Amino acid sequence: MDLFIGEPDYVGKGWGRLIIVRFLNEIAFPMFPEEEVCWILHDKMNKRAIRASRAAGFRCVRDALDHQTLHEVLVVNKSEVARLAHAIKD
After folding, report:
1. Averaged confidence pLDDT in the chain
2. Residue 1 within a domain
């Protein structure tokens, strides 16, 4: 998954969180119903991506070094995504 919000007026307004939660709840988890968690990996320097993922319920599990670049490994439970998706609709 890669996310780009190209309209400057929408950057930093919570759209990333909304898009991630809706994608996971409406597409990713239904496509793979046997999966209970989703993993994501971000370059540690990509603060916006990390912030959006954490706002979407992901939590940091550990750091990982890949090709000389430090990454943050995050995970979210299907139930947390469903809870957030329900809260967003209300």
Report:
1. 93
2. no
Res 12: pLDDT:
86
**Looking at beta carbons, which pairs linking 25-28 to residues 24 or more positions away fall under 8 Å?**
25/81, 25/82, 25/84, 25/85, 26/85, 28/1
Task: Give 2-40 pLDDT, tens digit per residue.
Answer: 888 889 998 888 899 999 999 999 999 999 999 999 999
Number of domains in the chain: 1
Give, as one character, the DSSP assignment of residue 10: G
Residue 46 is assigned to a structural domain of this protein:
yes
Q: What is the CATH number of the domain that holds 25?
A: 3.40.630.30
DSSP helix/strand/coil, 59? strand
